[in-house]
Amino acid sequence: MVSDHFGPAQTSVEKGFSAVEFLATSKDLDEVTGEYFEGKTHAQANAQAYDREAREKLRQITKNSIANYL
């Protein structure tokens, strides 16, 4: 079902797990928060992630979408 919507996985489960484990347990990242990573590498997120108006629009869409469930 997921692959039908998003396409094939970009990496293996093992590589994905390794990245999550590294990000969760690395002492080098103890003070890092709110950053974007591609695997184990610090990276830039999509430009919209840095666009204040786009973030606010997404926040409003999300709040409106879940309002009936809260």
H/E element sequence: HHEEH
Main beta sheet strand tally, sense and closure? 2 strands, antiparallel
Distance between the termini: 27 Å
Which blocks of ≥5 consecutive residues have pLDDT under 50? none
- Outline, from the CA principal axes? extended
Number of helices: 3
Radius of gyration: 16 Å
Strand order of the largest sheet: 1-2
- Sheet/helix structural class: mainly alpha
State which percent range the strand residues make up: 5-15%
Averaging pLDDT over every residue, what do you get?
A: 91
Structure at a glance:
By secondary structure, the protein is mainly α. The chain has three helices and two strands.
Please tell me about this protein's structure.
A two-stranded antiparallel ribbon has the order 1-2. Helices cover 47% and strands 6% of the residues. By secondary structure, it is mainly alpha-helical. The two termini are 27 Å apart. The longest helix is centred in the C-terminal third of the chain and has 15 residues. It contains 3 helices and 2 strands.
